[in-house]
Input
Amino acid sequence: MSKSNAQAAAEARAARSFKKFYFRGVELEDLVKIHKDQLIQLVHARARRRFKRGLKRQYIDLLQKLRNAKKNTVIGEKPDAVNTHLRDMIIVPEMIGSVVGVYNGKVFNAVEIKPEMVGHYLAEFSLSYVPVRHGRPGLGGSKSSRYIPLK
Output
């Protein structure tokens, strides 16, 4: 009886499938193949306006560099990072699987684009500031930290 339970558990593990990703009701495989006009209807209003007004050359160049990086990658490896200052670039399905170095004002933070990031800006994944940690003493937090000996 325990053997059949173990067998059933093994079959359940083999038959287990991963949760499919949907972006506003569209499956990932369809999202990658989708036409630009249909993608515009899926994203939020600010992104719709941005796409309708047209992408500038620098954004198109970034997409081209990402395409080339993915094309020149060995199967099973991550593509080379493409560095950019374009923090206001909206992530499109074509970018999924790419690695982008997003400049935060000091360094390029490597961001691997995942399906959940579609429709967001690159800047959301590379903070340009250090978040405040409240409740901890800092420089000048007490009288003793101001004391500097003369010798």
The mean pLDDT is 86.
